Automatic annotation (TrEMBL):
Cell compartment(s), UniProt: Cytoplasm
Keyword Cell wall biogenesis/degradation belongs to the record: yes
Family to which the UniProt record says this protein belongs: Belongs to the D-alanine--D-alanine ligase family.
UniProt GO MF annotations: ATP binding; D-alanine-D-alanine ligase activity; metal ion binding
Database matches in Gene3D superfamilies: 3.40.50.20, ATP-grasp fold, A domain, ATP-grasp fold, B domain
Cellular component terms (Gene Ontology): cytoplasm
Name of this protein: D-alanine--D-alanine ligase
Keyword rRNA processing: no
Organism: Thermanaerovibrio velox DSM 12556
UniProt function note: Cell wall formation.
Superkingdom of the source species: Bacteria
Active-site annotation: 13, 146, 282
Catalytic activity: 2 D-alanine + ATP = D-alanyl-D-alanine + ADP + phosphate + H(+)
Amino acid sequence: MKVLVAYGGDSPEREVSLRSGEAVAGALRGLGWSVEAFDAPSPLAVARRAEETGVDMVFVALHGGWGEDGTLQCLLEAHGIPYTGPRWGACWACMDKDVTRAVLESRGVLVPPGVVVDDGRCPGDLLGDALERWGRIVVKPCRCGSTVGIGIVDNPGDLGGALQEAVRYDRKVVAERFIAGRELTVAVFDGEDGVFALPPVEIRPVGGFYDYNSKYTPGMTEYLCPAPLTHEELKEVSDAAVRAYVAMGCSVYSRVDLRLEEGTCRAYVLEVNTAPGMTATSLVPKAAKAFGWSFEEMLRRICETSLRL
């Protein structure tokens, strides 16, 4: 197999993508495949490089921006170039948390109550009303990942700062009720017999809040995989993840982030990631290892399934 690994890009998640791309390229070479790692300056550059080198497919190891919002995927489809992961429409819908929320709600998938605001047209009391109603809210950019720009607010005096931080990355911002409970993530894959969930990963940040530093600083977060869940909790979380994956039109693989509410055993879907982190210690590879797959085996399955679907 001849593969072009597209990584890097110019989104706020560039550094994460660089690590993903390097890990993926190394693992695919370990399978004996011919691999070129390409630090992608633009979607068109990826398509041109793929055509110039005559690769069998592009492995998308880009996070955020045009590498995850469907732009690259749409262009590759137009050029007839196979690539890994969901099709462009699912990527676009999952990248925008506003769209994701609307789709999931329409399909009966539980999401936290929330409001969407625009930095230029936001009524001054909208976030204040949300905070008063729910007591604690999560403020985050609508079209950004890796917990970039996210903040938890329980004091009215902190609202302005949280909104200002979020709009640094996206003029459209979502504010959701904070769901007290356990943070979990579930990798969902397409298999020959249908869609299935890998063992959930529980995320326990040392500081109590899973922000960018907690996510990427060694020792700042404890990961439990498989997550210590009862049979009922496991079914609730896995079913919610699969339903979200299907509702969003995902294919091949994606990662679904959830909160399991304390005292209710209700799983709230926070977002669906169509281009999750792919270092050997990222969340999806952790789940794959618990399932019995090596990092190389997981990547091989992603590539082969992408060509099949």
